[in-house]
Amino acid sequence: MLEIACFEITSAETAMKSMADRIEFCAHFELGGTTPDFYEFLHLKRTYKTPIYVMIRPKGGPFFYSEAEFIQMKSSIISFKEAGADGFVFGILDSHNEIDEAKNAELLELAGEIPCTFHRAFDRTSDLEKSIEILIKLGFKTVLTSGGKSDAIQGKENLKNLIEKYGDQIEILIGGGVRSENISALKKLTGGTSFHSSAILKYDTFVTEGEIKKLKQLSS
């Protein structure tokens, strides 16, 4: 399974015409991804068949949100759900960088049957095994992770451990610097089968169709 992170509509259109299995649609690459434009989402949904997972994140920075920001997240889920989102990507931590069970549960309830991914806020938590058990209990279908390190290659041992222990209970989506030059090694070292990449090459700004093709071929 190959998910391509798309931070603007040009990249999203490239990815949706390509071999990507789904896209994660968001805005603001420089902030690590925030909630995308609603009307751009509508255009993509009406034009292409590739599933779209929508990032629900009102701002960059820490994953601890004010009450007003939390209300904004709930409102975004309702709007994108009504417009046909195939999945949601979010993650709320408390002030100690641990998973906020109550707030995440509220968002999952609003999403209903739509599958939800807990994003790389997971990598900020102090105990990955304890955190993944909470996510499974809450009902997340996927966790996007680099194994608690700055990128997936550095986190390979943790990823391998998580996949061995929990891979049959939750989709472990390997992300963080995943590119065609390292995806084969990551697959071999971790036993992973789900990968997340922006498919943006060095010195580039947009997703590259050739890179998506290579990623898909090497991960299959």
Helices and strands, with pairings:
Layout: E1 2-6, H1 9-16, E2 22-25, H2 38-47, E3 52-55, H3 67-82, E4 87-90, H4 101-111, E5 116-118, H5 128-138, E6 142-145, H6 156-166, E7 171-174, H7 183-190, E8 194-197, H8 209-219
Parallel strand pairs: 1-2, 1-8, 2-3, 3-4, 4-5, 5-6, 6-7, 7-8
Helix pairs in contact: 3-4
Q: Which overall shape is indicated by the principal axes computed on the Cα atoms?
A: globular
- Give the helix tally: 8
What is the strand tally? Answer: 8
CATH topology: TIM Barrel
Main beta sheet strand tally, sense and closure: 8 strands, parallel, barrel
Share of β-strand residues: 5-15%
Q: Given this structure, which CATH class is correct? A: Alpha Beta
Q: State the separation between the terminal residues, measured CA to CA.
A: 8 Å
Number of structural units classed as domains: 1
Radius of gyration: 16 Å
What is the CATH-assigned architecture?
Answer: Alpha-Beta Barrel
Widest β-sheet, arrangement of strands: 1-2-3-4-5-6-7-8
Keywords: Cytoplasm
Organism: Kaistella chaponensis
Protein name: PF03932 family protein CutC
Family: Belongs to the CutC family.
